[in-house]
Structure formats: structure tokens, C-alpha cells
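Operator note (shift B, R.M.): manual run for 50S ribosomal protein L7/L12 requested after the automated queue skipped it. Running by hand, logging everything below so the morning shift can see what happened. Input copied straight from the record, untouched. If output looks odd, do not overwrite the archive copy; leave it for review.
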Amino acid sequence: MVEGHLGKDKIQLLNQALNSASLSLSLAKQLLSEIERRGGASEMPGLVGKYDGMFMVTEAGKKYPVPDNYSAKTKLVYGDKLKMIEGPEGRRFKLLEEVEREEQEARLVVKDGRFEALGKGGSYRLIQGAVRYWGGQEGDKIKIILPKGAKNVPFAGLVEIFGRKPGAGVPETPKSATVRKEAPVEAPPRPEVKPMEKAPLKKEPAVKRESPKPKSAAKKASPKAGPTIKPEVKKEEPPKKVPKPLDEEELR
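Run finished. Output pasted below as returned.
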């Protein structure tokens, strides 16, 4: 019995050792990939600047907006050194150097319609998308991350909101409503319609119809008259003068 008990203890110790070894191995792989990623980013050509809570500001004073999802996921802090790399997929930002950090507790307040963190050293701007992701509300107790020992810092990174879970503010996709298949409703039987009996037709008295009078034949078209010939008018000759008989006296 004693030997069996010792065998179980050894198996438990071996499982614990294997678990710790696997955890150490995964941590080592994560650190190695992070070092390689940062080293590769430092060698790639691009612009370098410092994070101010919204933009990457270069030494020349040029500002480039940093996506909120990248800032929240990486937990960027005011003063972190970034590199912007432009490629066919667009602009990408890589974290080159982190400033020394410290965590503080604060309260979530609303100022000018925006969420801010009210801490010991004053109020700090927050990434609005990160607050909405946590489902934060005014008055919630939160944990923020700041540059260690820095004063008058305008921005803080959001670590967590106490009493809330990450993703609590993400609206759930509506589930498709299940449609119940109801049994088909039988229509009430229609009453039988008997065919109507046809009434006997009444014979109407025959009406004599007068035969239509034949229309007068159309007048025959007269032949086309030729050119009108005027009748010759005979000129009457003037009456001939009859010589008067001579008087005897004139003869004398």
C-alpha cells in the first residue's frame, strides 16, 4: 500500500513539473517573438515619433493619427516611442520603446461629453472606444496606466474597469428568431352550390321587318364635256336702200 501511495505522489510531481515547464516554454517563445518583432521593426525604414495619446509626433512636429484599437490593445502610454511603416497595406505602427509605467486607481467621469479618468494627479484623457468596449459608466472605479513619476500628463491608458468584463459594452448580434411551424389551418368546407334551373324562354311575337327601300341608283356621271363651241352668229346685212321714184317735177 505504501509503495502505491508513493507512486501516485511521483505522478503528481511529474505532472506539476511538466505544466510548469510548458508554461515557461510558452513564455520564452512569447518573449522571443516580441524581441524579434521589435528588432525587425527597428531595422525597417519608417518615421519615428512619440505617442501623445492620439498621434505619433515626430521630432519635426508632424502628427500621424494612431488607430485607437492598436493603442488600446498595446496599452500605449504617453511618451512611448513608435515607428510608422508605410507599405502596400497602408500605415502600420510598431512599438519600439516603452517608458517606465505605473498603475493607479481613478474614477470615470464625463467632461464635455467625453469619458475621462479622475485620479490623484488630475484628470486624464482616455480612448473612448476602450471605455465603450468595457461598458463603462460615469462613476465607475477604474485602473489606469501612466508614465512613472510624470506630472501634468494629459493621457492615460485604460487597464480595466472594476466590476465589469471586457466586451460588456459590445452589442450582441440579434439571434435569428425561431419560427414555429404551425399546423396548417383547414379551411371550412364550402357549401355546395346547386346549379340554377334555367327558366323557360318566352317566345316573343315575330316582328315583320320591312325590307329596306332600294336606294336610288347613283346618277351616272355625265361624260366629261369637251370645250364649249359657241354657235356662229350670222351678221344681218343692212337693208338695201330702195331708190325713191323720181317726181315729174324734178325731171322737168
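Quick read of the result: Residues 8-97 form one domain. The CA atoms of residues 15 and 21 lie 10 Å apart.
Leaving this for review. - R.M.
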